[in-house]
Every structure is written in structure tokens, then in C-alpha cells.
Amino acid sequence: MGNLKTKDLSKIGYTNDRARSLVINIISRHFKHHDKAALTALLTAVKDRPQDYADDPVLGPVAATFMDREITCDFRSFQLLEATGQLKIYGAREIEYAARQQMEVAMSLPVTVQGALMPDAHMGYGLPVGGVLAADNAVLPFAVGVDIGCRMALSIFDEGASFLKRYGHQVKVALKEFTHFGMEGGLEFHQEHEVLDSRVFQSTDLLRKLQGKAARQLGSSGSGNHFVEFGLITLKEDNALQLPAKEYLALLSHSGSRGLGATIAQHYTKIAMDTCKLPKPAQQLAWLDMNTAAGQEYWMAMNLAGDYAQACHDRIHLNLKKALGLQSLATIANHHNFAWEDTLADGRQVIIHRKGATPAHAGEMGIIPGSMTAPAYLVQGKGVASSLFSASHGAGRMMSRSRAKQKMTMSALKKLIADAGVTLIGGSVEENPLAYKDIERVIAAQQDLVAIQGKFVPVVVRMNKE
Asked: Strand runs (DSSP E) across 264-374, as ranges?
């Protein structure tokens, strides 16, 4: 925000939390190269003459906080369109009918521009998991997902299989002592990261209340399919990392923004559904207009949750590396529950939502995992426009958690894991390998979208025990 601080905003009359949060977000996106004097003069003018800026595409939402009227979604009701936007489905044979039907509903929203469905897709809340949606100047909280900023992170080390043979016990101890899983709680030792000092935490009452919990949960992981695992990755010849083509020790993690992201998602989903009324099949796909204060607030909070998710992975990897005396050769990471401002092939500016999908712009690196026994793939995007520059985020579920629980016993899971040569710490039958699609088929269905750079095989897996 240049060198403008919250107290500087208060001095010029920005005493309202909503106005301050909008200013922090808008300045960081549009005025970061302006000096303090110019910003102060501009913001003072907006406060003193808000009517002059009411229709400004950038400053309009700020001006609205100083006017009697506020630019909002106006509690409007919308009908679904009969003629829908362009939808591309990858690996259609792998995708259940319910997920495709959900995506068709999303395609009929008035704000939808384009969509894509990845081969790991399955039914979710609002948008299916594996759904990618480009919207016009609107953000859909349920098209981002509840676990905002859920992501993958991979660290590659200058060690091989012999490290796991020599220090297998130490690896297991480190995974038990330096990770924490579950809905509540956190690590038993203090964690630090610059994200906790972000000014955005002070921009709204909601985020202020969540800062303490975020500090407590830093460096921990959630439940369900979240994991931290050591394994071996074999890199291909002429790989994008420019590392020698051989087998390396690697650490792979999957988790998101913990209670911070979940609370943000719930709060703004309610606002969206209260202000943007849709027919029953589409109710969960309510959106926030980016020209409204609520839209700008959510965008700012979503990005904070994404930064926090990254911070959790940073701490997980740092803690384990220090515990085991490892040095990274390379680290690759990507979000898969998030929304980004992007430009389509025809030049249109849109908000691309990836709910359980990996960004795959040309040259962009990503990780697509399988299951606790199946391999993960290190990939490089090819930038395919019809996929909205995306790929799958994993193998995708083939069974619901309840069905997986019915079909698998803990003793059968232990045998399955042992036969695969994997050590499992924690874990549950809901996440058993047979509950997931065949990762090889899912990867084959998107060979036009990504180029494989390496194959990771899990050896020691840590998950939540439910």
C-alpha cells in the first residue's frame, strides 16, 4: 500500500472498516507505484466528492462507502440462461453424470463466460470438484471451495533411496513430531511466518478475529485427503527443472488454509446467497460482483487465505528439512482451490475459478497426486485455452467417503498398503487407494494439457486418523 498505513487512512477520514479494507486491496492492485502524497490527495478527493467517483470502475466501491447508496448485488434475482457458454470436458468417460450435470448448471449462469471439466472431476458443493469456470467480473465463493488455497508442494533433495533405508526410523519420527493433522489444534512448538503480520488481518472484523487461530494452526494440515509424505521422484531427461535425470528423495504435501479459509468461505458464501438469488439448482453458485464492497472484501480475504496456505506448506517443509538435515534442490507448488484474474485467448478479462484443478499455463509447473499408494506426477503446463489453462488436481474420487468406508476395513487397508511397500502413519479407510480413480488413466486423458517432467512414488505417508 505504498507507505500509507491504517492510521494514515484514519487521519483523512477513513474510519470505516469496510472503506479501509477496500482501499488496502485496491491500492495494492492498481496504485502500488503511487507515492504517499498522491495517494493521500486521491483518497481525500474520493471521500470529499464521492459522487464524482461513483462510476469509476476501480474507485467506485470506495466512493460508495461515503454515499447514501451502496453499490451491491442489490438483492437481485437472476434466471439461468438457455444458451450456455463454451464447455470443454476432458476424460468424459472417467466423469460421473452428476458432476457433468452440476457443471452444466454452472455454465448457465449469466456471469459465466467459459468452462472446463478435468478428468478427475466428481460431484461437489456448487461447482463440481475438477470444475474450472471463467466468470465476467464476478467471484463465486463455492466455485473456489471451502478450503481456500488448498495446494500441493514438492521439495526435491540431493539424496536418493539410500537415505530412506539408512534413516527410515528418523523419517517416521520426524513426520510424527513435526506435522499435525485434524480440524483443530496445531503444532506444539511456536511457528513464525511473515504472513501473520499481514495488514489484511486488520482490514475487517472477521479477519481480526481469525488472526489468533491462524497463528495457532500455522504449519499444520487438515483432515480428509490431506497428507505429508516422503518418497522417490524420478525426473525425465531434459526436465524443466534442469536437474540431472535420476531418482531423488522428495517431500510432498497437500493441505490448505485451515480454519481461516473455511470461515472466510462460509461468511462470504452466505453474503453471496443472500444478495444474489438464483433458481434452486444453482443457489450455491451465487456470486459477488467485483464492483461491490463484499466482492472486494472476499477477494482480499481469499488472497490472504491463499498466502496463509502457502505459509503452512513453507513451515511443514522447513520443519522437516531441519529435523532431517536436508537441503532442497528445487521446490514446486501450486494452488487448486482459488480464483485468479486472467485473460482469455480472445483478450477478454475474466476471473478463472479452479475448484480442484491445477493451473497449467504454458511453462507453469504443477503436481498431480494419485493416492496413498499411487504415484504423483510433476507436470509442466502447455497453456491450452479450451481447458482455461488448467489440468486435474489429482486422481479424483471414484467412491464417496461413506461408500469407501463401507467397502474397506482397516485390516484390508493395512494389507493393501503393505503390499504396495508403503508405510502409513495415521490414515483412514475413507482415503483408501480403491476409493480413487486410476491416476494413469486420468493423466492419459490430459496429455494435451500437460507434459510429464517426473514421477513421484510415495514411501512413508502421514495423514489424519479419523
From this structure: 276-277, 288-289, 328-335, 337-343, 349-355, 357-359, 365-368
